[in-house]
Amino acid sequence: MILKIVKNKFGELAGSPIFEDTAEEIKNIRKQAGLTQSQLAELFGLSAQTRIAEYETGKRKPSKRIEILYRLLKDGKLNYSDFSK
């Protein structure tokens, strides 16, 4: 019962994102860069696109390293074409 209460408090059972503002910003940054989730996962050195989907839906909070990479992407200092050659 306690597990259910904790999960409800953090929105996991209700299906609502845990980190809603961050999730929306992450999705917008990716779209503005013109990248798919798979391309962004590759750029960030992640093994699967599902991790990006989890960030964008708020089911998982990005690590500090990933947050820094998002900020670099947002500022135009990181570009997929630089790594896809």
Key phrases:
mainly alpha; 85 residues; 434 Repressor (Amino-terminal Domain); 6 helices; globular; single chain
Folded structure, characterized:
This protein is globular. The relative contact order is 0.15. The protein has one domain (2-83): Orthogonal Bundle (434 Repressor (Amino-terminal Domain)), CATH 1.10.260.40. By secondary structure, the protein is mainly α. Residues 1-19 have low confidence and may be disordered. The protein has helices at residues 2-9, 20-32, 37-43, 49-57, 64-74, 80-83. Helix 3 (37-43) packs across helix 4 (49-57).
Task: Write a compact overview of the structure shown.
The chain has 85 residues and is mainly α.
- Name given to the CATH architecture: Orthogonal Bundle
Order of helices and strands: HHHHHH
CATH topology: 434 Repressor (Amino-terminal Domain)
Total discrete domains:
1
Question: Distance between the terminal alpha carbons, to the nearest Å?
Answer: 52 Å
Count of individual beta strands: 0
The low-confidence parts are 1-19
Mean pLDDT: 75
The coarse silhouette is globular
Describe the sheet with the most strands.
none
Structural class: mainly alpha
Radius of gyration: 14 Å
Strand content: under 5%
Specify the CATH homologous superfamily. Answer: lambda repressor-like DNA-binding domains
